[in-house]
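Record type: ASSEMBLY
Status: queued
Input:
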Amino acid sequence: MYGELKKSILKLLGAGTRLDGRKAFEFRGPIEIDYNFVNTAEGSARVRIGETEVIAGVKMEVGEPYPDNPDEGTIIVGAELLPMSSPEFELGPPGIQAIELARVVDRGIRESKTIDFKSLCIEEGKEVWLIIIDVISVNDAGNLLDAAALAALAALKNARFPKYEEGKVDYKEKTDRKIELRNQPIAITVVKIGSSLIVDPDSEEERATDARLTVTTLEDGTLCAMQKGGDTPLTKEEIEKMIDVAVEKGKELRGSL
Amino acid sequence: MTYSKRLDNRGFEETRPIEAKVGIIPNADGSAYFKIGNTWAYAAVYGPRNLHPKFLQDPQKGILRCNYNMMPFSSSNERVRPGGSRRSKEISMVTEKALLPVLDLKEYPNSVVDVFIELPQTEAGSRCAGICAASMALADAGLLMKDLVAAVSVGKVGSKLLVDLDYTEESYPDADVADIPVAMTPNLNQVTLLQMDGKVKKEDISKLLDMAKKTCMNIYELQKNALKEKYKADSQ
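Status: finished
Output:
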């Protein structure tokens, strides 16, 4: 269906450039992060990468801990790919793309132990904070995943706990208490088209994608989550190269926070 | 406490600050936001486009589909569960009826015009803000329209008649409150949305509709300016 499109993308990549003139490992610019974008959330951020735009909002609720971790709170990540943001998204429950996106964002934050879940405990076995991060798409011009992970982290960074007294959360009043973040996990998706690797694909490049690998990394180069996508397999050499790129580009995106 | 003055010092016929912008979502055929105080509505229009499943198609005219949705973090209380509620379904339906009279869908047989209204943050008046944004987005999409649609809530708190109730006024504890969202077509001078809850006398309704009309004319000017602004920017 996208045969002609793919042919011209491949031809350009062969000549060392892309449809919009970028280099292979160049993000669209400017990368914009607007903190505290939504005042009804406990924390929020809007991220724009080129024409791609997402909003992440953090809401906090008090709930019961899981019986196997009675002194730990937790995070919940939801993603909605709104039909407002692309002619290809439809109304209805989250499809597989939204579910995958939410789960990859979740793993990056959870597995890097960025949040100390024990610090979310109010009373062991009874009450803990649940941190609910929702990411929604406003305009999908490609690479929603990297934008979503960046927005989720930015929203966590500026979140403030609401007042909690006598078993009730007062959402009208925020306290000074922030969520302690021990790391800054950044997701970078490296895309393989033909034999070329690129980052930050736009919508056309996503359609031409053979394989992709999302790698979430920390400041010191530690990897904390990976997800391969696409129908085509990857070689060990390609995976190693993709990880190197993700660590490098992760530094760049972390710098924009 | 009797209600004699607005908490934010607005005049009784004064709205919260309004900001309107057209062309905010590049993927959409038309888009706009309408912000009134802390209530923000985004609207995106897709279409006229093919309608599936096919049995829904009307060979005589296109159909309009509206969907109103609050983003999960848009409430100043608990998180809004995604997936729509009875409330959002009803608002979607009355929004559709509020917009339909200005469209000429006979030009688009077998097609659908989808309007997606999304609210990033809310604090009263969200259905009206959604209608204002949607009407601008429909115009931005280049659809044939007889008029724009402007909307605002009017109402009564205690003995005062007022426009654009905010959250504290909608839920004022020690007074009778009436909340009346109204949408109007500024040029055709017709009412396309009317709901009300609370207690009010018929004489007051007449005065309130006049107040709504006056405010809708002001909103209409802001909507027109926002539309012109986009095309001014585009032609540069």
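Annotation: Helices of chain A lie at 3-14, 96-111, 144-157, 203-207, 236-255.
Annotation: Chain A has one domain: 3-255.
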